[in-house]
Amino acid sequence: MAGTVLEVKSKEVFPSIFSRHAAAYERRMDDIMSRGEARGRQRVIDLVQARPGMRILDLACGPGTLTGPLAAMVAPGGEVVGVDLAPGMLERAQARRIPNARFEVMDIEHLSFPDGSFDAAACGHGLQFVPDLDRALVEARRVLRPGSRFAASVPLGGRRQEAWELLEKSAATWLPAPPPRPSDNKPTQAALGDVDAFGAAARSAGFARADVEVVEEKVVWASAQQLVDLATSWWDFAARLEGVDDSRRDGFRRDAVAMLRQRYPGAIETASQNHVLIAIA
Asked: What is the per-residue pLDDT across 87-96, written as a single tens digit (0 to 9) for each?
């Protein structure tokens, strides 16, 4: 029907895109984690307070970005279980062969673990993709033992910078228009973007205490080429690159690098903010 807007669902879109671009995502995260620039995710690791022997759940674990550091902290005798809906991400995580860790394809809104089966839980930049935030938080609380800690970071939008605007300009020239964005997670994003609403959602889910911090983050990209090479690890660019022939992909990369280099002849620094939740079961 003419004029009909295609409705897409988060769980029909995000897992497949993240699976196909898991390698680029992993490279980007390994780079910024190794330089201590992923401050929101690092804050989650710190807040969990992992200790030897603990059993920890890593929600929306991706390629094991948080799983690895947490698994090292719970050794000996502990375990980290990473769950994600993107099989491609879990393939990358399993390939790391992280001691004291295992991975399962699982929806964080529908966890298959028994009540009170974990000593702590973590989530690094995953809650913003769930359609039902309340259910995800209830599930996180359900599988935690009383007094356990749950820490989660989410990125904040709305701080567009010139580097991203130049990438968008190049994409508009060479790539298809952005695909329909899932709308079923808009209430989730609205709640996570508000400190009070985020904390209230955690308390409503059954956590005894919940506080949210604002964590500033700066990332330095070595060059325009590096930034463009890793652009496919952001789902919106990844979605637009799918199905595009090599000539247009190359045109996008070449054009974006040229524009960025003209404005930033050397390294490029980008800034962002995160909301980081610490909740006590």
From this structure: 999 999 999 9
